[in-house]
Write a structure and sequence with these properties.
mainly alpha, 83% helix
């Protein structure tokens, strides 16, 4: 959960003309929205690690295919 001062958010909403109940409901809904759509550092680190592994797998696969093609060409040409 992000570090958001919801009391300050509610105070600013009240100062802006919202009732206390409106400010409370809006701040709670904003917090839910942020919680469900905000990417955390841990999530991004995990996703980056997964993508690195996927890139390495593709590179190894392409290296194997390239080696096979080169071997086949040498066999055909000699």
């Amino acid at each position: 959960m992000p570090n958001i001062d919801m009391v300050a958010v509610m105070d600013n909403l009240i100062k802006g003309g919202f009732t206390e109940q409106q400010a409370h409901v809006l701040s709670q809904e904003l917090l839910k929205l942020i919680d469900t759509h905000l990417a955390t550092r841990d999530y991004l680190d995990l996703r980056l690690a997964q993508l690195k592994i996927e890139i390495i797998q593709w590179m190894v696969g392409l290296l194997v295919v390239q080696s096979g093609v080169i071997a086949a060409l040498f066999k055909l040409l000699h």
